[in-house]
């Protein structure tokens, strides 16, 4: 419990410092919103003038979208997801040209970006100042005590009387400064979230854009699912061909040889039969491993709760499990959740250097939420390996999402969300089996 509290304390301090850093960044970036708005409008106004805007407007729009994309990334860090709403660009993607110019001006997301620049800059700068001032005021209160004591020593050395009220004021500044610093670090992420929610009013996709993104997402996930299914079938075929099938063929040949030797060399025949029995045992073990890779029996018999607890026990480190499920998800969703949790725990064991881990599973408002936490060194990156990307693809087939938080030094938190419907405990497969 003490370790968990220490991890939580480090986590909110780290989040507060990150929010303060982002607030300072927003103050700086907001200064450029007004010049960016002016340059974009000038590029638009120059369109009739010998077509200068046909080339200037796409360039300024690229800069504008880079600015709003940065806002979306920062909003994601604050816990507010803002999808990228832009329509697909025409092909070929030229720097200028009428098609590209038309694509920019007919996309509602362009005008929403432009509309955000002025109010977004004002709100971002104002909230950034608030985020910075509160912890800065607390920090100066903490620094004030040693400053007062130092000044007292200096004046006393010159024989100058230093009023006791100055010392008492310095002593009071320490707890007051610590309180303001802690309050600033707690409030900073909430203010960042307010800024992100305001940006979402302008920069989130419209209804039409959401439908377009939904179609594109379904197209990609369908292709990924088909590819993953084909790869899984090839893996099963390869494992059967190279493993159990080869052993069964060898087993048949061994039994055939034993039959030939049974009359003229019974001792050799018995030896071959013993080898055949051993080979059959090995083939059976390989088949069981193969079946577990397709759908673990413990998952079918005991559900996600029992399967994850059994998985946690098999890990080489302590894994705390907290599960609150009033029923069972559909079998495909249950299987996907299990294999993603298994992959996440495998990554913890192999790469994190963690001493402990925890798995939390809850169901709320039609969503199965899973959190896998470890106290390792952090620094996990989906771009550096196929494991995390494979987890994302497996979840995407069910409209699930994965969020990764893994700052250097840890902790690493993997959050999985799967929309699903639970069966009642009375009608769940495990209950029927019991």
TrEMBL record:
The chain crosses the membrane at residues 38-58, 114-134. GO terms for molecular function: ATP binding; phosphorelay sensor kinase activity; protein dimerization activity. This is histidine kinase. It catalyses: ATP + protein L-histidine = ADP + protein N-phospho-L-histidine. Keywords: ATP-binding, Kinase, Membrane, Nucleotide-binding, Phosphoprotein, Transferase, Transmembrane, Transmembrane helix, Two-component regulatory system. Coiled coil: none annotated. SUPFAM superfamilies: ATPase domain of HSP90 chaperone/DNA topoisomerase II/histidine kinase. The keyword ATP-binding applies. It comes from Winogradskya consettensis. Residues 232-299 form the Signal transduction histidine kinase subgroup 3 dimerisation and phosphoacceptor domain. Residues 25-203 form the Putative sensor domain. It holds the Pfam family Sensor. InterPro entries: HATPase_C_sf (IPR036890), HATPase_dom (IPR003594), Put_sensor_dom (IPR025828), Sensor_HK_TwoCompSys (IPR050482), Sig_transdc_His_kin_sub3_dim/P (IPR011712). CDD domains: HATPase_UhpB-NarQ-NarX-like (cd16917). It comes from the Bacteria.
């Amino acid at each position: 419990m003490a370790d968990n509290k220490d991890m939580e304390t480090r986590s909110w301090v780290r989040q507060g410092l990150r929010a303060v850093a982002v607030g300072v960044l927003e103050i700086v970036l907001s200064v450029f919103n007004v010049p960016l708005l002016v340059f974009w409008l000038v590029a638009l106004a120059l369109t009739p003038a010998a077509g200068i805007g046909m080339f200037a407007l796409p360039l300024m729009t690229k800069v504008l979208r880079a600015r709003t994309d940065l806002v979306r990334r920062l909003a994601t860090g604050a816990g507010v997801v803002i999808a990228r709403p832009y329509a697909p660009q025409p092909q070929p993607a030229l720097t200028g040209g009428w098609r590209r110019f038309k694509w920019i001006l007919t996309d509602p997301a362009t005008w929403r970006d432009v509309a955000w620049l002025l109010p977004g800059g004002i709100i971002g700068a104002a909230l950034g100042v608030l985020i910075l001032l509160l912890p800065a005021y607390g920090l100066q209160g903490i620094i004030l005590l040693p400053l007062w004591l130092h000044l007292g020593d200096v004046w006393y050395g010159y024989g100058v009387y230093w009023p006791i009220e100055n010392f008492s004021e310095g002593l009071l500044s320490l707890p007051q400064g610590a309180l303001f610093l802690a309050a600033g670090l707690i409030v900073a992420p909430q203010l960042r979230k307010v800024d992100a929610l305001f940006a979402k009013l302008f920069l989130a996709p419209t209804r039409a854009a959401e439908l377009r993104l939904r179609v594109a997402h379904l197209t990609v996930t369908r292709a990924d699912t088909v590819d993953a299914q084909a790869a899984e079938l090839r893996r099963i075929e390869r494992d059967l061909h190279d493993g159990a099938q080869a052993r069964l063929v060898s087993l048949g040949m061994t039994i055939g040889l034993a039959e030939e030797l049974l009359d003229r060399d019974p001792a050799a025949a018995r030896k071959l039969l013993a080898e055949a029995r051993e080979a059959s045992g090995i083939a059976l073990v390989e088949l069981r491993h193969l079946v577990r890779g397709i759908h673990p029996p413990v998952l079918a018999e005991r559900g996600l709760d029992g399967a994850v607890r059994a998985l946690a026990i098999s890990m080489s480190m302590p894994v705390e499990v907290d599960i609150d499920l009033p029923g069972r998800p559909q079998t495909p969703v249950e299987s996907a959740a299990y294999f993603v949790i298994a992959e996440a725990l495998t990554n913890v064991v192999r790469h994190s250097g963690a001493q402990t881990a925890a798995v939390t599973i809850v169901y709320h408002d039609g969503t199965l939420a899973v959190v896998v936490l470890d106290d390792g060194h952090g620094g996990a990156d989906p771009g550096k390996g196929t494991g995390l990307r494979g987890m994302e693809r497996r979840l995407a087939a069910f409209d699930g999402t994965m969020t990764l938080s893994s700052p250097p030094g840890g902790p690493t938190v993997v959050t999985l969300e799967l929309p699903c419907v639970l069966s009642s405990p009375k009608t769940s497969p495990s209950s029927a089996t019991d």
